[in-house]
Design brief:
With 324 residues, this protein is of the alpha+beta class. The chain has helices spanning 2-14, 105-112, 131-144, 154-161, 177-191, 200-207, 224-227; strands spanning 40-41, 49-54, 57-64, 67-71, 89-93, 96-99, 267-273, 287-290, 306-309, 318-319. Strand 1 and strand 2 (49-54) form a beta hairpin.
Length: 324
């Protein structure tokens, strides 16, 4: 253990990024202990943005003023619209909060104690020593000889553990709708709030820019490359390469409401079961997902496009965004 501590101190002091690969943690389960006092809103209710911190990881929720909009195959979608997007119809949504970004891997891990993502960062052998374990051992050494070990912050620790082949700022993926419900239950225990998945109507209202909408085909632009990571602009098309797959959130331009990545990066689960706009019967248990992903073409990433998956499906292109 002393050797590991010395290695980590050197890494953290020099700012060296560790590059030795470690097997990913593919389970979202663990013995993670929730600490309610670590989940703290940093602004007053009713403000344009609220920031929450859970076990050292912060995330922002953006206020969305309710309104009425036309949902589905509107004019700017043209011939790209599928039959499932028809007929276009008026919908009214109430005011609510939406995640400024998709749920990141670091937030999921802070809540659940593990990271199920296919595109999780590779970690060094030294990272097998947990942050909490490192701090405990470092304090014991410092008690015997003060100043022996510099204790890093959680963010400094995470920075030393992440290699250039990945980022905990990427959206979490490989999570089912059922997994998302478990995540929400734990998050709500931590925060005392009622976080949830957005409804499909809420999702599309925000993707279109809410009451600030400019009528774009994609979320925030008619030029998809400006606002989304999709199959034609991810840094690498080579599977296994560092630029392949999901990309760190909020690295493209936001939409009219200041919301990032509603087109592309990962599909996002919605709360609703699948239903048909034309009112025809559907009796399955599939849940709606929206937005398209890093592996899709522009046609799929339109704001009105809709899809469904079984609630137990997990894919490396499927994640979530919070609503409140």
């Amino acid at each position: 253990m002393k050797k590991i501590i010395i290695l980590l101190v050197l890494l953290l002091t020099a700012g060296v990024t560790v590059a030795t690969a470690q097997k990913r943690n593919k389970s979202s389960k663990g013995n993670h202990v929730a600490k309610a006092q670590s989940a703290t809103p940093k602004s007053n209710a009713g403000s344009a943005t609220q920031t929450f911190t859970v076990n050292g990881v912060s995330f922002k929720m953006v206020a969305v003023q309710g309104g009425t909009f036309t949902m589905g195959a509107t004019g700017e979608q043209g011939s790209d619209a599928y039959s499932e997007e028809k007929p276009a119809h008026k919908v009214t949504v109430s005011s609510f909060y939406i995640g400024q970004t998709e749920v990141t891997q670091e937030l999921w891990e802070a809540v659940m104690g593990g990271n199920p993502s296919e595109f999780a960062p590779k970690r060094s052998d030294a990272s097998r020593c947990s942050y909490d374990g490192f701090v405990a051992d470092a304090k014991r050494l410092n008690d015997k000889r003060p100043g022996t070990v510099k204790i890093p912050t959680r963010s400094e620790w995470d920075a030393a553990m992440v290699t250039s082949s990945g980022s905990m700022k990427r959206p979490v993926e490989n999570v089912s709708w059922d997994d998302c419900q478990a995540f929400l239950r734990k998050l709500n225990q931590l925060t005392g709030k009622n976080f949830r998945l957005p409804t499909e109507a809420e999702w599309e209202y925000v993707a279109r820019g809410g009451n600030k909408s400019r009528g774009y085909k994609y979320s925030g632009s008619n030029n998809l490359g400006n606002v989304a990571w999709y199959c034609e602009n991810i840094p690498s098309q080579k599977e296994g390469a560092s630029g392949y797959g999901t990309q760190p959130v909020a690295t493209k331009s936001p939409n009219e409401l200041g919301i990032y990545d509603m087109s592309g990066n990962v599909w996002e689960w919605c709360q609703d079961k699948w239903y048909n706009y034309d009112g025809s019967s559907y009796t399955g248990s599939d849940r709606i997902c929206r937005g398209g992903s890093w592996g899709d073409n522009a046609w799929i990433c339109r704001v009105s496009n809709r899809h469904y998956r079984s609630p137990d499906d997990r894919f490396d292109f499927l994640g979530l965004r919070l609503a409140l």
